[in-house]
Amino acid sequence: CRVLVGHFKQLLYCSLYCTEGLPGVISVNVSYLLFIKLILYVWITPIIFMLRHICIVKIYITSLTKFLFHPFTKKTVDLVFLFDGSASMTRDVFNQSKEFILDIMNSIKNSSIKFAAVQFSLKPRKVFDFNDYHSGKATKLLRNEGFMQSITNTYKALDYTLDELFENQTAGASPDATKVLVIITDGDPSDRDRNGIVKKYDEKEIIRLVIGVQQVKLDNLYAIASEPKTNNTFHINNYNGLAGILKNFEEKILNIEDSRTALSEKLQYEMSQSGFSSVYHQGALVLGSVGSKDWRGSLYERNGAEPGIHIEDPDMKHSSYMGYSVAAGEKDSVSLYFTGAPRYKHTGEVVVFRKTDNTWNVLQRVTGEQIGSYFGAELCLVDVQSDGHVDFLLVGAPMFHCPQEKRRLELESVLNVTVPSRGRFGTTVSSLADLNGDGLRDVAVGAPMEDDLRGAVYIYLGHQHTGIRPRLQITADPANARIRFFGQSVDGSADLGEDGLADLVVGSRGAVVVLRSKPVVNVKARLHFEPAEISTASIQCPKTQTGTLPMVVLTVCFDLAEVTRSKTGTTTTGLNISYSLDVDPLNTAVRGFFSETGKRDLHQTVELATKHCFNHSVSMPFCVYDTLSPVVIRLNYTQHESEKAANILNADSATQTSHIAYTQNIKKIKQLKQSAGGRGDINIARHFRRVKEGGNITFEQQSVVLWWTL
């Protein structure tokens, strides 16, 4: 199977499931006492719990304690950046600190971590709090933060941060959150710890990670870092080293988020969350179980009445969430299961399983590149030719971060696609039935938070070699302000209108939108000239009289053919075409123009339902010096008012370019050959360059070369 790795901007929302097995779903609100009984029941009788009842319980907790909740979910983390703005730093170094903070936030924002920031010098100053981060204002506030340039009052800043952020719920702090302070400084403290602020941080179990830059005393850094101090203190010689410790630092923060209360024995399948993802393939139901084996994750396969089996990767790390996504397909008559583990080593991984001797074994692993990218959160198998064999695998990395504030879809370096970074591009990736009639399956990608949360869907047409190629963007209806998060889910496998065309169903918040497909029409353009060659008999140089000479009558014909298989057809509805003609567009000297306008270009809009051919007279001046190279007629055409049309012009319909030779060329060639005694031959080479504009292709002449061969 050919694996193509794509980085999609995506964020999927998950619910907490307590699972006993398969396959029904019961949603219940439970009180504090009932929740305690349920947890004890899971811990004490796991075997009976799994065998007696087959259900999935979705829990909405009305009251719980930190102790009970902590072992099973990611811990909420309140993280504050306390960065140095003293005069010992240059402005460039100060800006590097801000960029480092932005990189951290962007790389691990698909987590339960909330961020805030404080700059300190003579006095501390809040840059943004947890509420600002939640509302999306943090990046702008940090970029606009000015440079203080004074002394380094570190302990005063620690006191301020504790009171104004960590213990201030109006700033968005969570009372039960794990609290983390990241201190970035290039100098020793100017003040002293007169109020015992470090002791207060220890008593409140606030984790402190310290980054010291340049010639700073390590003992002073150890004084404010948490235990073990050597593990929580980083020292670099200059601020360029911040990029070098970025990965290590992100892993440390994410490990804090993953920390949990130790249990007497590890969980196996009690919290497996079977059904988090699912696929049905050849009579087998395959469910993703992200919580099994201490959140390593697994797949659960149930084939008819046969006992279910767990499919596991022995090398999977804890808290990897394998089973977050699952897909199944055939390649060379071999069944394959694909599953994503988006938190594997914090970069994510996709695992491919193959069945050998009735046992599912790991065939291949594909690992993500960037920490916090959630590589593997979404999988989409594409059978381009619909022959039952998998051709391409699209892998979503929802939080992949690019410095250019864009997300990229990269298919083996063949195709690069960039989209706005704030739209959650790739929330869903769906293989569609053939939309444009080329016999290849297409792909839809949802971006539900694009355009200020209104949403959008991107359509990619199938391609035999690269898998997909970009085509168009569909946005939410601007006339309907109630549509929000358009593109949260997408499906395009059914013909809902029973017209022979696949339709697109797009999910949004509280609404489902059905987009009807239209017949796709191929248009082939033909140019005919009467006469076929330009006569040079009347050309007079230098010019002795005014006026013009007739050159040719140009006939433009369009042939229509539907490439889709609609039941209605296109003969009754037709197609509106806007076309333009250019005479000798690359020649600076005027050798021809349209008689009706006196210009070298002509623009027309026509309906092709009843008439497909159109005539235009072309004239030329009395004096034309260049009669050696042919006159180039360039035709470009597009669909007119495509949004209102009943049919759609195929984007692959190409522009046609024709050349009209002068009769004098033929005479000159014959004369040259006769002068050589009939020996050898005249060769004419015309050099063209291929120009593609949108869906149209133009071949433009660059030069003409004549040479004699014997």
Structural class of the helix and strand makeup?
alpha+beta
- Sheet with most strands: 6 strands, mixed
Average pLDDT level: 76
Q: Any idea what the radius of gyration is?
A: 34 Å
Helix coverage percent of residues? 10-25%
Report the total helices. Answer: 13
Provide the spatial order of strands within the biggest beta sheet.
Answer: 7-6-5-8-9-10
- Per CATH, the superfamily of the largest domain is von Willebrand factor, type A domain
Tell me what you see in this structure:
With 710 residues, the chain is α+β, with helices and mostly antiparallel strands. The chain has four domains: 17-72, no CATH class; 77-258, Rossmann fold (3-Layer(aba) Sandwich), CATH 3.40.50.410; 403-517, no CATH class; 520-673, Sandwich (Immunoglobulin-like), CATH 2.60.40.1460. The strands form eleven sheets. A six-stranded mixed sheet has the order 7-6-5-8-9-10, with helices on both faces. The chain has a five-stranded mixed sheet with strand order 33-35-31-30-37, with no helix packed on it. The protein has a four-stranded antiparallel sheet with strand order 11-12-13-14, with no helix packed on it. α4 (91-107) runs parallel beside α10. The radius of gyration is 34 Å and the shape is extended. Residues 1-73, 260-265, 404-416 and 679-710 have low confidence and may be disordered.
Task: Produce a short descriptive summary.
This protein has 710 residues and is an alpha+beta fold.
Topology:
Elements: E1 3-5, E2 17-19, E3 25-30, H1 32-44, H2 46-52, E4 56-61, H3 66-69, E5 77-84, H4 91-107, E6 113-120, E7 124-128, H5 130-134, H6 138-143, H7 154-166, E8 178-185, H8 197-203, E9 207-213, H9 218-224, E10 233-236, H10 241-258, E11 274-281, E12 284-289, H11 292-295, E13 298-303, E14 309-311, E15 325-331, E16 334-341, E17 349-356, E18 359-367, E19 378-382, E20 392-396, E21 406-411, E22 415-420, E23 429-432, E24 442-447, H12 450-453, E25 456-463, E26 467-475, E27 489-491, E28 504-508, E29 511-515, E30 520-530, E31 548-562, E32 576-583, E33 593-594, E34 601-607, E35 613-621, E36 631-639, E37 648-649, E38 657-660, H13 663-675, E39 681-693, E40 696-709
Parallel strand pairs: 1-20, 3-4, 5-6, 5-8, 8-9, 9-10, 30-37
Antiparallel strand pairs: 2-4, 6-7, 11-12, 12-13, 13-14, 15-16, 16-17, 17-18, 19-20, 21-22, 23-24, 24-25, 25-26, 27-28, 28-29, 30-31, 31-35, 32-34, 32-36, 33-35, 36-38, 39-40
Helix pairs in contact: 4-10
